UniProtKB/TrEMBL annotation:
It holds the Pfam family NUDIX. GO terms for molecular function: bis(5'-nucleosyl)-tetraphosphatase (asymmetrical) activity; nucleotide binding. PANTHER family: BIS(5'-NUCLEOSYL)-TETRAPHOSPHATASE [ASYMMETRICAL], DIADENOSINE 5,5-P1,P4-TETRAPHOSPHATE PYROPHOSPHOHYDROLASE MUTT. CDD domains: NUDIX_Ap4A_Nudt2. One of its GO terms (biological process) is AMP biosynthetic process. Keywords: Hydrolase, Nucleotide-binding. It comes from Facklamia miroungae. The keyword Nucleotide-binding applies. Residues 2-131 form the Nudix hydrolase domain. Belongs to the Nudix hydrolase family. This is Bis(5'-nucleosyl)-tetraphosphatase [asymmetrical].
Length: 134
């Protein structure tokens, strides 16, 4: 069984009355989720998460490593993948979409984000992130 590892984050922007959460629609599959990507040689998890967020959204973020969640799944036959998620505060809400990998980027309040997310494991991740922020 081949093992893969990716890192990313639940990105939020501290809007006046409630935080907004960033969702991206991935070109590959069309699902709504969070920015993430494969760990490159020599990188630590935090570096991968920040690089992937920057590449996919153009955002600079402050990563909080006190929130660290692992999602494990099989994307295809013979492969197991671990995705490590942190929580990250965006310094601005101005995004610059990576055209090759990202169809759309949206900022949504919690409830709307929860309803937009495609997969239940990503919904669970958002629920945990919101609790962490409170």
């Amino acid at each position: 069984m081949k093992e893969e590892k990716s890192c990313g984050a639940v990105v939020y922007y501290p809007n006046e009355d409630q935080p907004l959460f960033l969702l991206i629609q991935h070109e590959n599959g069309g699902h709504w989720s969070f920015p993430k990507g494969h760990v490159e040689e020599g990188e630590i998890e935090e570096e991968t998460a920040q690089r992937e967020i920057k590449e996919e959204t153009g955002l600079d973020v402050v990563l909080d490593t006190h929130f660290r969640q692992v999602t494990r799944f099989s994307p295809k036959e013979g492969v197991m993948k671990n995705v490590i998620y942190f929580i990250a505060r965006a310094l601005t809400d101005k995004v610059d979409r990576q055209l090759e990998e990202v169809k759309q980027i949206i900022w949504l309040p919690y409830q709307e984000a929860l309803e937009k997310i495609t997969y239940p494991n990503d919904q669970d991740l958002l629920i945990k992130a919101k609790k962490f922020l409170q």
